[in-house]
Amino acid sequence: MEFQSLPNFRAVVAGKLYRSSTVDNVTPDDVEKLSNLGIKTIVDLRSVEEFNESSAPRLMDNTFQVVRVEVQDRKPQPPELRFSVKETGSYQDKRHYIVSCYNRHFFTGVLQRKPWYLKIYIILTMILAWLVDTALRTKMKYLKKAIVPIVLSKDQGILQWYKDMVDFSTGSMFAALKILSDPQNQPALVSCKYGKDRTAIIAALVQGILGRKKADIIEDYHKSEEGTKSLYQMMYDEVIVRFDAPKSFLGARKETMQKLLEYIDQKYGSVESYLLSIGFSMEDLEEMRGNMQG
To answer: Organism's domain of life (predicted)?
Structure first.
């Protein structure tokens, strides 16, 4: 199905799970097309701040309830998910979940692997940026500019960014997969800003647990090169101009996903072992496989 206002859209599991860029800009015609697919749930991997700063019409949220998901770590028990309604739509059974990949655990983890002198520099830079924002009332403009290079790990490249999300955004991964694999929430759509990076990791984990060949997972990831062509200038302005990241962050090269899957295998043993390490049980995984089968 073609969407004029929803770039990078495609099926992960036909009839069960789809992926795309943000739904903020969908037109009335594309809202109807999504309705025809029966989409009940949107799992949005952006932060609440990203969601709030969007000035797009967000027509989907006229019908979908916007729900913020907070994850409470309870190791060795599975994470606890807390839901709070942010905006009320006209349909109680349609929900747009905000599941941010960037939380305290993510920032702490990324910061901990930095050399001590960089830790001090980063902390001082963030404090200074916060003070400037407070004085000028610039709504986190300078703090965000200080934080994003840390989030992107731009000095080490897009692959390290993906590894950091796998290692440190485990609660978010658990929450997203738990919601998406619930049959009461299907058909579902997973998205982020461009549908290329955070969305790609969730899609790869789903395909991995379903036993898809690595070559197929890699090929699906690579489709985002074509899928984001209409977003290229926006991505360039946001990622390259605004945050001074390398141009490699705009791509979806096959070798990036290949190396990420190799990293998961090397560090955790397999996608299944990774999911077990973040809070799922074997019973959960079997149920997930059954619920996710097309």
So the answer is: Eukaryota
Chain-centroid distance of CA 62 in Å reads 22
Statement: residue 213 has pLDDT above 70 = yes
Question: Is residue 293 domain-resident?
Answer: no
Residues 199, 254: Cα–Cα separation, whole Å: 16
Q: How do the residues of the chain divide into helix, strand and coil, expressed in percent and rounded to 5? A: 55, 15, 30
- Give the model's pLDDT for residue 2: 84
**Does residue 5 sit within a domain?**
no
Q: What integer pLDDT is reported at residue 294 of this predicted model?
A: 66
Q: What contacts 26, CB < 8 A, 6 or more positions away?
A: 3, 5, 6, 34, 59, 60
Give 271's pLDDT tier (boundaries 50, 70, 90): very high
**What residues have CB less than 8 Å from 41, skipping those under 6 apart?**
94, 95, 96, 97, 179, 180, 185, 186, 187, 188, 189
Report the distance separating Cα 91 and Cα 148, nearest Å. Answer: 35
Residues 179-205: tens digit of each pLDDT: 999 999 999 999 999 999 999 999 999
Give Rg (Cα) of the chain: 19
- CATH assignment of the domain containing 43: 3.90.190.10
Which structural domain range is residue 36 located in?
A: 10-270
Whether 84 maps to a domain, the answer reads: yes
Number of structural domains, the chain?
A: 1
Q: What value does the mean pLDDT take over residues 249-271?
A: 97
Contact (CB, 8 A) for 32 and 6: no
pTM of structure: 0.93
Q: Where are the alpha helices (DSSP H) in 62-157?
A: 104-112, 116-136, 141-152
